[in-house]
Amino acid sequence: MSFEMFTRMGRGNKPALSIRKNGQFGLNSGAIEKFKLVEYGYVVLYFDKARKMIGLRPTVENEEYAQKLIVKKDCGSIGGKAFLDFYEIPYGEKVRKFELKWDESEKMMVAIIREK
Question: Quick check: pTM over 0.90?
Fold first, then answer.
């Protein structure tokens, strides 16, 4: 038989970045799997003011300005309060979720954070 059983009930597979109420960034299971984030321990954060985009470049090195990437089971988190405060990106009222894509030219994950 060539059928494959679907076993991912209740979990989204589309990579997403969340800005949590406490100022942390959250990465869902889709992002962890698609971008193979268990292979990395850190990310370097970037911001494009003109396009309102957050960039996250995964790295295995604890290089200057890198943030610790914590991966537990099927989700991840990154401290983001200082970044969010610096760029005046709101958090605190509710969790905000954004689609996360890979930008091959920049070699990083990117999320457009413009409000719809």
Answer: no
